[in-house]
Amino acid sequence: MKFNNFSHYGLSIGADSVPELWDPETLDLPAHIEMLTDTDLYELCDHKVIACDFSPKHMVILTLQGHLLIFD
Asked: Quick one: how far is CA 2 from the chain centroid?
């Protein structure tokens, strides 16, 4: 679980590798996203995430396979 204080949302990835993106105040999807399928986050389902971090414009994911995934 990780919180992005730049964009004010949380990201968690369950044991089944399905990502969940949520607003910490409402626990729903952030207001700027209608459906999670509108994002590229389902690409994470194919990877075993071992670390993630945020910058003001990007989310960076490191996978067990050594891939570095960058999301805008």
From this structure: 8
Cβ 40 vs Cβ 47: under 8 Å: no
- Across the strands, what pairs with 52? 61
Each residue's pLDDT tens digit, 5-63: 888 888 887 777 777 888 989 999 888 788 878 777 777 777 777 788 888 888 888 88
Q: How far apart are the first and last CA of the chain?
A: 19
Per DSSP, the three-state class of 65 is coil
Nearest to 49 by CA among 65, 33, 30: 65
Q: How many residues does the chain have?
A: 72
